[in-house]
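Example record

The entry below shows one chain as it appears in the dataset: sequence first, then C-alpha cells.
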Amino acid sequence: MVIEDSSRLRLGVAIRAAFRRGYTAADLRADAVAGLVVGVVALPLSMALAIAAGAPPEHGLYTAIVAGMVIALTGGSMHSVSGPTAAFVVLLVPVTARHGVQGLMVASALAGVIMLLMGVSGLGRLIQFIPHPVTTGFTAGIAVVIAILQLGDLFGLGSLHGERIWERLADLGERFGQVSAVDLGIGLLTLAVLIVWPRITHRIPGPLVGLTVATIVGLLLAGAGHAPVTIETLFGGIPRRVPMPTFPWAGSGMGWDEVISLLPTAAAIALLGAIESLLCAVVADGMTGGRHDSDAELVGLGLGNIVAPFFGGFAATGAIARTATAIRAGARSPFAVVVHSVFLLVAMLVLAPVLGHIPMAGMAALLLVVAWNMSDLPHFKRIARIAPRSDVVVMFVCFALTVLFDMVVAVITGVVLAAFLFMRRMVEISGAQLVGGPEGHTIGGLPPGVVFYDVAGPLFFGAAEKALGALTVVGEGVHTVIVDLEDVPAMDATGLVALESIVERINRNGAKVVLTGIQPQPRRAVERAGFHDEPGKLELTDDLDTTLRSILRG
C-alpha cells in the first residue's frame, strides 16, 4: 500500500492510512497471527541483544515491548517491526561499560530526541544519500565485532575484558585454558540446530527450537552435576513484572558533564538507527509493493526511543529479519507489531522462570548466527569485486575502523571520505572548453571578435575552479565572450563568486560577457547575486540560438 498523507502532521501516518483504506476483522485476524509468529522470533533475540549490549535480558524485552508498540503506532511504515537490533551493539557496549544501564538509557533517550528532530525537520529523505559502501563497510564490521563479543559466553568464560577488540582477543587467549567443555558443547549444539533447522522447515522459528534444545540439555547436565552458565546464574533470572515508568537517570549519579559526553554517541545511535529503520522500511516496501513515509518513520522512531528508556528500554530501530518474518506470516498493518509487543509482555510474565534457564552459550550461538546473516558476506565480496576502486577503499576503511575502533569514528570517516570522492568525481566531469572563436572552430559563422565557451558540470566549491579555469579571453580584439551554461545543473556560492570574478576580469579587458542557457537553479542564484543586463558588460539570454542571431544581426 502506498502511504500518502498531504497533512503536515507526520504522526501515526501508517496507522491512519490503515484505517483510511478500511480495516476489517479479516485484517485483524491476519495481524494477530503474524504478531504471534514474529513475537516468538523476537522473544529470544530481544534478550540476546540486551545481553550483547551489556544489559540484563529483561531490558531487551522492555525495548521490544514499549519501543516496538510506540514506533508502530506513530511511525510511517505499514509493516516495520522495531526493537533492539544487532546494529546497535557496537555503539551500546562501551556506553554500558562506562555508565551502566542508566547511562545506556540516557544515551538512547538523547538519540530519540535527535531522531525526532530529524523527522520533524524533513531530513528523512537525506538518509538515502549515505553512500552504499559506507553502510556495507560498517555493517560487516559490526557483524565481526558482535561475533567476537560472543566468544566469551560461548566458551563459558563470561565477558571478555578490554574496550578494544584486540584487548578482548588477548584476554580470550590468556584465559583459553579455562574454557568450559559444558558451555562450549551446548553452544556448538545450539549453533548446529540454528544452521540445520531452517533447511528442514520455516514453520517453527529456528531460534525457538535452538534455545529450547539448549535449555533442555542444560537442565539435564545440571541434574548430572555439570551445570552451564545460564541467564539465572548470571543475572538472577528475569523479573515477572510489567515495565513501570521510571526516570532513566534515577540512581545513576550522572551529572551534566557525563550527559554531555554522551551526545556524540547519541548522535551516532540516531544516525545508525535512522539508516537501519529506513532501510528496513524500504525492504518491507519491496516485499509488499507499498511505500513508507520517511519523515513520519523518523518521528515515530524518535518517539519510541524517547519513551522506551522511561520503561527500562534502550535504543531501538527497524529490524529487517523480524519485519520480513511478519510480512511472510501475513501482517497487514502496524497492529501486527502491537500484537507482537503484547505477546512479549505476556510471555515475560508467564515464562520468566523458564527463560532464566536458557544457557548463555546458547544465546551466544544465536548471536553468532545473527552476526553471520548481518555480514552478508556474498554481497560484501561482490561489492569488493565490481565497485570502483575508490568505493572499495571507502568500504574497507569503514569496515576496519568499525572493528578496530568504534562506530562513531567509522561513520564520520566514511561519510567524509565518500563526500570527498563525490566531489572529485564532480570535478572530473566539470570543465569549460573553447568551442568557437579566434582559436576554435567556427560555430554558425561567428563574426570576428566573438569567442564561445561551453561550460559543463555543476559549479560548486569542489569544481568551480576547474570548470571556469579555461574561461579566459583569447587573443586581442575580442569584444564578446559567450558562455553557454546549459549543461550546468547547479551552482553554489563558490561557483557564483568564481563566475562573478571571471565576468569582472573579462569586462576589465574591454569585452562583454553573454551568459546563455542558464538552468533554473543557477538562474535563481545569479539573479539573487544581482546579475542583470548591463550594456557593454553583461547580457543574460535564454538560449544559444537567440544569442547567435542577435550577434549576427549586430
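Notes for this example: Residues 430-553 form a domain with the Transcription Regulator spoIIAA fold (CATH 3.30.750.24). The longest helix spans residues 89-120.
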